[in-house]
What we know:
Blueprint: E1 5-8, H1 10-27, E2 34-39, H2 42-57, E3 63-68, E4 99-107, H3 111-121, E5 128-137, E6 149-154, E7 160-165, H4 167-170, E8 174-179
Parallel strand pairs: 2-3, 2-4, 4-5, 5-6
Antiparallel strand pairs: 1-8, 7-8
Helix pairs in contact: 1-2
Amino acid sequence: MQKGRQILSPERFKITLQRLASQIIENYSSNELINVVGIQEKGVVLAERLIAIIHKAYPKQKIQLGKLDITFYRDDFRMRQTPLKANATQMDFNIDGKKILLVDDVLYTGRTIQAAMSSLQDFGRVERIELLTMVDRRFNRHLPIMTDYTGIEVDAVDEAYVSVEWEHLEGEDKVLIYSKK
Length: 181
């Protein structure tokens, strides 16, 4: 892949995270438990960052974090050239009858979110699922899935790859777009 073009700078990235955290707080009461489930791997990173921002501003806000691996729920699991690497799932709370905030870094075709919802069913029947993504690639959806909380919307051709990069993993918080050609 070629060098990516930055579409969200570190400064704007920080502002976007702050806005997403504020939107979450606006939609939950101060005594309501927020059940956050991050999709492994980078959805968990985003969820952890948002929780840290919320706890800094609202230290008494109750939040639970689950980490969800969807590897074996993907519809392309057996179609890939190289095997997918599974991550640990960590759901230390009961999700039956609860509102879940599902978090992932990029919403593209919707297949990852569909796999995550299927995986969540193995843990119980939720009351409602809300979706938060850092990037929504609006015009590439294969399934009728949309976000409740969106960092940025990106209109990119199918041949493009959008990457959310994190300071502690890639050296800087930013969003890049790459050409696959």
